[in-house]
Every structure is written in C-alpha cells, then in structure tokens.
Design brief:
Chain lengths: 497, 131
C-alpha cells in the first residue's frame, strides 16, 4: 500500500464514523481504535517526512483536478513538522487517556473517541490543505468538536464554557467566510499558492481589510488577545486529556493558519509589527492573570496563552533566527504544556477543592506525578538544561539581532512572573506540610508511560537540541521562501506516486 | 409570462442588484445586533443564524451574472463558457449552510443543558465562570 497525505484525513474519519458500528462487536473497541489510528498517523508522518527530506515536498492532487482548480494537499518541511508533532501528541494523549475514562459508560466513551479523532483530523487538515476554503471547513470541524469536548462532563460548568467558545467561534467563522468572499472577488481563486501569486493586484486598502478579518478569525484558535476569552474556561472545564490536546494540537493549527496567511498570502509591512504588539499584549496580560489564579488548570491555561503570545512575537520579528525560535517554542509548548496539563489534572483530581492551596504535600503522596510536574514547570520557565531554555534563548538572540531592547526586557520581566507562579505550586507540593488525609486516586500505568515519554523528550531535547534543529531550520527556510511554495503547488506536474 | 419577467428584470437590473446587496448587509447587521445586544441565549443563536444567512446571500449575489446560464455544456447551453453564473460561490454557500446548521445544533443542545443546570436562559444570570 502506498502512503499519501490523504491518509491523514481519510483513515481517522473512517475510523471515527465506524466506531458506532464496531462498538456492537466488542465494547473495548472504542478505546483501542483511536490508538491504532494515531499510531498509523505516526507511521504516515515518518514515511512522508522521509520523502520530504528527499524531494523537498510531497503534494497530492485530489480527484484529478490539478492545483489551481481542485483541492490539493501539500506537505512542505514546515507543515510536515507540525503534522508530525500533532500525530505524536495525538498518540501520547491517547496513551494517557486509555484507562482514564474507566468510570464512564460505553455511550459516552464512544462519542469521546469520535470527537477526539475528528478534532485531530481537523487540525491536520488545516495544516496540509492548499485551499483556503478547505482550510475554513477544517477550522470549523476543529471548532465544533472542541466545543463538544469542552462541554463533555455534565457535572462541570462545561456547557457554559462551551457556549462562550461557540459564540466567539461562530462570530469568527463568519468573519473568515467574509474574508474568503472578499478575497475571491479580488483574485478569483481559492488556491493559496495562486492567491499568493496574484495578491499584488489587490488594492492596498482591500488587502488590509481582508488581512484584519483573517487575523481576527484565526487569532481565536491561536489564543491571541483579546480573542482568547474562551480559553481559560474551556481548558479548565474540559476533561484532562482534552486540555492537553487543546495545548498540543488545536492551538498549533490556529497558529499555522495565522502564519500561512501572514507570511505566504499577504505581503503587508505592518502585519509583522501587528504580530509583535498583539503577542506582547497577549503575553503580558496572560502571565499577570495567571499570577492571581487559584485554580491550577486555569493558571496553566493562562500560561498557555502567554506562551502563544511569545510565539507570535517571535514570528513577528520575522528574521530567520526568529522564525526558527518560534517553531522551536511551538514544539516545546506542545510537549511541555501537554505534560503539565496531564500531571496537573491528576493533581487536581486528588486535591480537595481543586485549588492550588490544597496541593500541600503532594510530593510525598504522588512522587512520580509531582516530579514530572516540576520538570515541566522548570522546562517551561526556561531553566537549563531543559528544552524550554533553548527556545527562549533563541528568541532572545533573535530579538537582540534586531536590536529590540525593550522587547528583550519585556520577555525577561514576564519570565520572572512565570517563575513566581510556577514555583509557588512546586514549593506547595514539596515544602508545605501535609494537611488533609484523603484517599489518593493513583494514575494508571499507561498514563505514567505517556507522561514519562513526554518527560524524556523534554530532557533529551534539552541535552541534545541538535536532534530537531535540522528539521526546524528546514521548516523556517520554507516559511520565508514564498516562491518555492508557489512553485511546489502550481508546477508539480508529476503527482507523487 | 416568463418573457415579461425577464424584461422587467433587465430593466431594473441595477435596483435589484442593489436590493440583494442591501438585504444581505441588512440581515448581517440585524444578526450582529441580536448577537451583541440580546440577553436570551436562544435569541443570540437566532442572531448568529441570521448573520450567516446574510453572508450566504452576499455570496450568491456576488457570484450572479445577469442573464447568465447554468455552468453546464449541453444542448441549449452552448454559450455556457462565456455566460455562465460562477458556480464556486454557490458550492461554497452549500458547504457554509451545512456548517452553520451544525453550529446551530451544537448551540441549541448546549442551551438545553445550560437551562437544565441554571433554570434560566438569560445570559446575565449564568455566570459561574468569570470571563
């Protein structure tokens, strides 16, 4: 069997819709099938990344309609890197949740599996498609499944968080649709490479209007201020594995959309300054909000928003080092924040009233989980020798290269805030006296393995960053090289295989 | 009858086009007003649907070609290449309608759950989560 990019979309969708039938054969199947599909995604990623290394890109034409007319899927080093990251995170999150939902009945388990797989498919679809309307459709798939997963637990305030997300999301999707319509009237095509080729024909004012509509639309998924009102509620009300998936998968797809539109589609000077300012405001407000949170998952959610602000700043600087650093930070954020959400939701489950102040003495009761949480906390604030150190260092280097002294000051000042609120939690776990005696819910073995894998990745990448910097450099080159993207899509006469 | 209608249409073409765009933008404004100002959750969702409907109408209006034919090459439609109505916006609107339907369905199911939980559908009385 030949592996092509379409497998990323077809296989998970087929499996998702087959689950209601397969559950009649055996009631454990809805648990196992997502894992098999996620594992297959990893295999696709490995095969396709080898081809990308060899040929520079992999492109697939769907239903025989060539590039400017039909829908095409394209995997470049940049999108390939993100898709591989999402596949890996999808598998680890499945491993974590395999026994997590032991208590719930088959019907709910079934819908959970379907929604989770469709969310991952949508995120992958956003990244590999070459058609802007197709991207919108996948964005809506991600939004609808994410809303449903947010309100998954009936006994939490999930419905309220989900409804907030839906209002913001529904409004933003209207804006994106309007932007696509305006773009279509101007350039007469929906293919992103062809739009990029013809965008210089569009009048400057129209171009700015369309860009603003797109930024507002995708900024919601990328957690950009002031469009991130949904994020803290959704993260804190969603099931634990879903919070991890939001941080590791959904946000990455949103940032990809933003970057593809700003870097490839439009060439407006001011857009980069806008990214820096937007990122800076997002980061500062989020980190200070995180400081005053009492709920651990809300604190992690605000921290996640702050990290995405830093990613946007790095993309906004726009030099090659900066883009490389931003990609590195996206990788780190996916791994570290997912680990923090996984360990954090187990810690929360065992605390009395779900607040940080009841975490006293967790270091003795749950030594392994506490150790991994501390590892994640150290890594995300950027202490050496963990992987978070390198990405922060590269971002500061890039800012220094452009002589943005104020920006460096702001990033460092915010890092201190980050250290304060993370170390507050860690010191509570290890140095505070144990106050309450409660029965501990121990995590299952597979959850421990999943968290162990992420912890190992943080340590290994921290000690040997060269393992991934090669891929990241290729990806960064690809983002900045608009001409070869257009060339790949429009002139790829020979479809691969 | 059909001939007569066609003549009227050609005569007042500009006014009709303006009317379509005006209706579309008017619908979008009404929808926006409902989403932003109404307190009842169901009314907000209705507003979201009206907003979508306005946008869909705008899509169709922009794709329309006066006196155009269907984009099919068949007997009676030999000039389809030069006179056809652009089919792409229509295809996009079909997809967008389906997506809008899904969003509305999810929204209504969330409202049912919110109502069971809080015994109200007023947005300013549901605030167990802060913004």
């Amino acid at each position: 069997m030949v592996i092509t990019p379409i497998h990323y979309i077809v296989v998970p969708l087929l499996a998702a819709f087959a689950i209601p039938l397969l559950v009649k054969i055996h009631k454990e199947l809805p648990r196992i099938i997502p894992g098999l599909v996620m594992f297959y995604n990893i295999i696709i990623s490995i095969v396709l990344m080898q081809q990308v290394n060899e040929f520079g890109y992999v492109s697939e034409v769907i239903a025989g309609w060539k590039a400017p007319w039909g829908i095409n899927l394209i995997i470049t080093p940049f999108s390939g890197f993100l898709v591989s990251l999402i596949s890996f995170m999808g598998f680890v999150i499945w491993l974590y949740q395999y026994r997590f939902k032991r208590v719930i009945d088959v019907g709910e388990l079934k819908s959970y599996g379907i929604l989770q797989m469709m969310m991952i498919t949508g995120a992958i679809g956003i990244i590999i498609t070459g058609d802007i309307f197709n991207m919108f459709v996948f964005l809506e798939i991600v939004a609808i499944t994410a809303i449903s997963l947010t309100s998954f637990y009936r006994h939490r305030d999930g419905a309220e968080a989900g409804f907030k997300y839906l209002l913001i999301g529904g409004f933003s999707s209207t804006l994106i649709l309007l932007a696509i319509l305006l773009l279509y009237t101007q350039v007469g095509t929906l293919n992103m490479a062809e739009i990029s080729e013809k965008i210089h024909l569009v009048p400057q004012g129209m171009k700015a209007t369309i860009l603003v509509l797109f930024i507002v639309g995708f900024g919601i998924e990328a957690e950009m201020f002031p469009l991130n009102g949904w994020a803290p509620d959704a993260y804190s009300q969603a099931p634990g594995p879903t919070s991890a998936a939001f941080a590791g998968i959904v946000v990455k797809a949103g940032v990809y959309g933003l970057i593809r539109i700003i870097f490839t589609l439009f060439d407006i000077e001011g857009a980069f300054d806008f990214l820096i300012i937007g990122g800076l405001v997002t980061m500062i407000i989020a980190e200070f909000s995180a400081l005053k949170q009492t709920n651990l998952k809300r604190m992690l959610a605000y921290s996640s928003i702050g990290q995405m602000g830093l990613v946007l700043i790095a993309f906004g600087i726009g030099t090659k080092t900066a883009v490389f650093a931003a990609l590195f930070l996206m990788f780190n954020h996916a791994v570290i924040k997912s680990l923090l959400f996984m360990t954090g939701s187990i810690l929360m489950y065992n605390s009395k009233d779900k607040t940080i102040s009841t975490l006293n003495g967790m270091g003795k009761k749950l030594p392994f989980i506490s150790l991994l949480f501390s590892l994640g906390a150290f890594a995300i604030v950027g202490l050496p020798p963990f992987s978070g150190f390198w990405s922060k260092l590269y971002i500061l280097t890039a800012a220094a290269g452009e002589e943005m002294i104020l920006l460096i000051g702001a990033i460092l000042a915010v890092s201190i805030v980050e250290i304060v609120y993370y170390f507050r939690v860690v010191s509570k776990m290890y140095f505070a006296e144990e106050t309450e005696h409660i029965t501990i819910f121990k995590p299952s073995v597979n959850a421990k393995i999943a968290m162990g894998i992420l912890g190992a990745v943080i340590l290994i990448i921290g000690l040997y960053p060269d393992l991934i910097t090669g891929y990241l450099h290729n990806a960064a080159d690809m983002i900045l090289d608009k001409a070869s993207y257009i060339d790949f899509v429009l002139n790829s006469n020979a479809p691969v295989q | 009858m059909q001939q007569e209608f066609h003549e009227i249409f050609v005569k007042y073409h500009e006014i009709i086009t303006l009317g379509v765009y005006g209706t579309a933008i008017g619908l979008m404004l009404i929808g926006l007003y409902a989403v932003l100002m109404k307190k009842n959750l169901v009314k907000i969702v209705i507003g979201l649907s009206i907003l979508d409907a306005g946008l869909h109408l705008l899509f169709i209006g922009i794709g329309y070609v006066q006196g155009g034919t269907a984009p099919i090459f068949s007997p009676g439609y030999e000039d389809a290449g030069s006179k056809m109505v652009d089919p792409v916006p229509q295809a996009l609107v079909l997809t967008a309608i389906v997506i809008g339907f899904a969003v509305t369905a999810v929204a209504l199911s969330l409202i049912i759950r919110l109502y069971k939980h809080h015994h109200t559908a007023k947005i300013d009385q549901i605030k167990s989560l802060k913004w």
